[in-house]
Design a protein that fits this description.
The protein has about 375 residues and is an alpha/beta fold. It has a seven-stranded mixed beta sheet with strand order 1-2-9-6-5-3-4, sandwiched between helices. Strands 7-8 form a two-stranded antiparallel ribbon. The protein has a two-stranded antiparallel sheet with strand order 10-11. The N and C termini lie far apart (about 55 Å). It binds glycine. Glycine (GLY) binds next to loops.
């Protein structure tokens, strides 16, 4: 038995289908698949510099055994690498290596590298192949799957990007062992999010025996990644370009992005996953206030995040201003004509996209939540 779980994304008339290979040790078993996806005897690996130090030799060895030579472009770790400057440097690297339309990029790292390398691949010669090898839990359950790529601009996060589906995703659960605890917990917020969106049974498992995944249990992590990818794959297959249903994947993100932006995306104060946890809890409590969900559902959502060591309330020390947060939410990519679009919930596993949400009601809610 190979130990791999395979989830196929796409394929029913939309974009070309691809596999997400999940499992402890999946990278070591991926040589043949990598060679097929890359389609050449060379590739360029765009890697997070820290991750390359930890896992670069393993990737190079697998590629080498498969007869693929890897050239490496490394990028500094951290969100600041999702910039025009770094994108230009990566593209210039492609030029220096003489990449043509038949070449393929391998992204090794977390969400930052996946987004940056994916966008560079989307732009180079109007689009070359990309393989994602996500090394953070957040990237394995979310950003490496579904084809969203982007960089940030001074006006906001992920504002410049493209949809560019990968040819293959290799999610090796074993690589998560080197993740700092806080980063693992942050990725777990996206796992819980998937249950809250549309799978009450999965959520119940996360509340119970699956909860050990947040502390690194490999068996629980494998199941959590697999189910998260299945949920995401089903949504993306229906709505690749986020014309409707895909927006569900942004549960907790409109509140969360506003909090992150107010803190200047300072990961030391609030990581993306922590912001998603607070954002999901706010979305559930707002759903209770508007009579959509029960207080019990909101309490369960909060407890699941809390059990994983994730925050669920605004931190008074951050001094959030309700009007400013609402202003940030108006600038969200989902907002239309200045009206708020939020993902709300009728219960656990019953999220929906609410358009035209009353901004004044959200502002008052945030004041009641402790913002000034
Ligand atoms: N992270 C949300 C999405 O991929 O649509």
């Amino acid at each position: 038995m190979s130990g791999n779980r395979i989830v196929t994304v796409g394929g029913s008339g939309g974009f070309a289908p691809y596999e997400v290979v999940i499992g402890a040790g999946a990278l070591g078993r991926a040589g043949r698949r990598l060679k097929t996806a890359i389609g050449r005897d060379r590739c360029v690996v765009v890697a997070d510099a820290t991750v390359w130090g930890l896992h670069g030799a393993a990737l190079a060895a697998v590629l080498g055994e498969a007869g693929v030579k890897a050239e490496v472009i490394d990028v500094p770790a951290g969100e600041r690498s999702k910039s025009f400057a770094e994108l230009e440097r990566v593209l210039d690297g492609f030029g220096a290596l003489g990449l043509d339309r038949g070449d393929c990029v391998v992204a090794l790292g977390g969400g930052v590298v996946g987004d940056l390398a994916g966008l560079a691949a989307a732009l180079w010669m109007r689009g070359i192949g990309v393989v994602q090898v996500p090394t953070s839990l957040l990237a394995q359950v979310d950003s490496s799957v579904g084809g969203k790529t982007a960089i940030d601009t001074p006006r906001g996060k992920n504002l410049v990007g493209a949809f560019h589906q990968p040819r293959l995703v290799v999610a090796d659960i074993g690589l998560l062992a080197t993740l700092p605890e806080r980063q693992l917990r942050s990725g777990w917020a996206e796992v819980i999010k998937h249950g809250l969106i549309c799978d009450a049974e999965f959520f119940a498992w996360l509340e119970g025996e699956g909860a050990v995944g947040a502390r690194g249990d490999v068996v629980a992590l494998t199941r959590a990644v697999e189910r998260s990818v299945e949920i995401k794959a089903a949504i993306v297959a229906e709505d690749e370009k986020e014309a409707g249903r895909r927006a569900l994947l942004n549960l907790g993100h409109t509140f969360g992005h506003a909090l992150e932006a107010e803190l200047a995306f300072d990961e030391a104060r609030l990581s993306h996953g922590e912001a998603v946890a607070v954002g999901c809890a706010l979305a559930f409590r707002f759903s209770v206030r508007t009579g959509l969900a029960t207080a019990e559902a909101a309490a369960r959502a909060e407890a699941a995040f809390g059990a994983a060591g994730l925050p669920t309330r605004l931190d008074p020390a951050d001094g959030f201003d309700a009007a400013r947060l609402v202003e940030r939410m108006r600038g969200d990519k989902k907002a239309e004509g200045g009206r708020l679009t939020l993902v709300l919930a009728r219960g656990i596993g019953e999220a929906f996209v609410a358009k035209d949400v009353d901004a004044a009601a959200v502002e008052q809610f945030l004041k009641d939540e402790g913002a000034s």
